Amino acid sequence: MNNHNASVVPRASDNVLEASRAASTSHADRLIASMDRSGYASATLPDGVVFAESVEDVVRTLQLAATNRTPVVTRGAGTGLAAGAVGQAGEVVLDVSKMNRILRIDPVEQLAVVEPGVLNGELNAAAAEYGLFYAPDPASTAICSIGGNIATNAGGMRCAKYGVTREAVLALHVVLADGRELRTGRETLKGVTGYDLNALITGSEGTLGVVVEATLRLRPLPPATATVAAFFPDFASAAQAASAVIAARVQPSLLELIDGQTLEAVDSALGTDYRSKGNAFLLAQTDGYGAFLEQDVLIEAIEPFASSYEKATDPDHAEQLIKARREAIPSLEKLGRVSIGDIGVPRGRLAEVAVGLEEISRKTGVRIFTVAHASDGNLHPMIVMDEGDSVTEGPAKVALGEMFYLAKKLGGTLTGEHGVGLLKRDWLLPELGEVSLDVQHAIKKALDPDGILNPGKAI
Ligand SMILES: Cc1cc2nc3c(=O)[nH]c(=O)nc-3n(C[C@H](O)[C@H](O)[C@H](O)COP(=O)(O)OP(=O)(O)OC[C@H]3O[C@@H](n4cnc5c(N)ncnc54)[C@H](O)[C@@H]3O)c2cc1C
Predict the structure, then answer these.
(1) Where does ligand 1 bind, in terms of residues with CB under 6 Å?
(2) Looking at residue 269, what DSSP letter applies?
(3) How many angstroms is it from 206 CA to the middle of ligand 1?
(4) How far is the CA of 120 from the centre of ligand 1 (A)?
(5) Complete domains list, the chain, with CATH
(6) pLDDT value at position 6?
(7) 130-149 burial string, b = 16+ CB within 10 Å, else e?
(8) Residue 453 has what DSSP assignment?
(9) Which of 84, 142, 224, 440 suits a disulfide with 121, CB 3.0-4.6 Å?
């Protein structure tokens, strides 16, 4: 073990850390493990971090944790936006980022078998060599892990057409709270034997088991893509254009909305000049053999609302336009501490959200920057604060709550893809209701009776 200073008073977690080959109690490792990208930082540091390199490491850690009743927080790449992977005093963080091998790509069955620490972008690069791709593509593709994607049921831009992570998971190898190994799902595309445990584990935010291997569906890379960027006088008209695209029954593979303030931040980070072209930006891509035919229908739908639009002239130009969306969060992070909302509403109600968000900004005095996966009604209203400000109290917390109630009023949800973690638990009951929450706690109790896995998170 690295840098392990024996405590004066033995802690239950020492038994877990001392038995692990690759455990660290260094201040630096514990500090990293107390934070993620949500802006949240635990008030205390976890007792240590186990860097698992194999399934055996994970099994052993959980067996020891079960025996010693030590809470374990599983961590992938730490890019989460809900404070799900953060540890605190009394807890051990189980970091699986070193389990990062792509074990198999099967081009005939169009699937990949990977360890949890493989980065989303790495899997896509490997699949591309076979003319395939892994569809769920969070904007954090270059830095987030497949295990984290599964645990949060991550979404992304292409999910509009190809579905979220749950739709891409064929089978999982999971280590349960007591160290037993569970295999869920199967390699075949169809299969309905037993309850759907893939779906149960996917999105469970590290509270039901540790994913140590995943079999994932790949898809053929589309033969063509067509990209268009349109500019609008305001966010509401861009939202109306997005709704018009959906009403036109065309299926974009990507339909992303960015408001004027965020465009300004992107321009200053990337040296682009999108803001001068409009006060809102809608990026749309169609793909497949009919990409350009579909693009014509799409342009017809957005033209009545747009001030101008440009078609991408080649793949580099398309990539440049997509980069504006991918870099939205990092660009805002340059301005201060960012608290990110993740509400979902029925797709036809995006324009109403824009009006509601303006009202929330007025009421709470916070500045709200918004990007949205428009094709699935998933908005990320982002509050930029001063570095010292808290994401868990004060105006930011009030505004996050108001955003949830706005979404709920419009028939929507608290979180579309980032998860609940620690940050959104206050609003679980109003969305789920008592019966659903009771059932969820009963499932947790059945799989993790001592409450060892990621306690206090997600449900
Ligand atoms: C710039 C930026 C852009 C982003 N864009 C998107 C986006 O477009 N769409 C989106 O969905 N998210 C987005 N995110 C959020 C984040 O990248 C995703 O939630 C991602 O899935 C987290 O992966 P991770 O490996 O970093 O997980 P972590 O942050 O390490 O963990 C997240 C959760 O998963 C659990 N977990 C991690 N690994 C495992 C495992 N092997 N087994 C069991 N539980 C595990 C943790 O306990 C925690 O609850 C973005 C984040 C950033 C910083």
Answers:
(1) 36-37, 73-81, 84-85, 96, 116, 138-140, 144-145, 147-149, 151-152, 154-156, 205-206, 210-211, 329-330, 417-418, 454, 457
(2) H
(3) 11
(4) 10
(5) 12-95 (3.30.43.10), 102-220 (3.30.465.10), 225-409 (3.40.462.40)
(6) 46
(7) bebbbbbbbbbbebbbbbbb
(8) B
(9) 142
Which pTM value belongs to this model?
0.95
Q: How many residues does the chain have?
A: 459
Q: How far apart are CA 27 and CA 48, in angstroms?
A: 9
Element (H, E) at 437: helix 428-447
Q: Tell how far the Cα of 145 is from the centroid of ligand 1, in angstroms.
A: 7
pLDDT tens-digit map of 21-33: 789 999 999 999 9
Q: What is the C-alpha to C-alpha distance for residues 286 and 222, in angstroms, rounded to an integer?
A: 10
Measured CA distances, 133 to 120, 121, 257 (Å):
10, 10, 24
What's the 140 CA to ligand 1 centre distance in angstroms? 8
> Which atom of ligand 1 approaches the CA of 146 most closely?
25
Q: What parts of the chain have a pLDDT lower than 50?
A: 2-6
The structure tokens listed for 95 are 């970091």
Q: What tens digit of pLDDT does each residue of 101-139 get?
A: 999 999 999 999 999 999 999 999 999 999 999 999 999
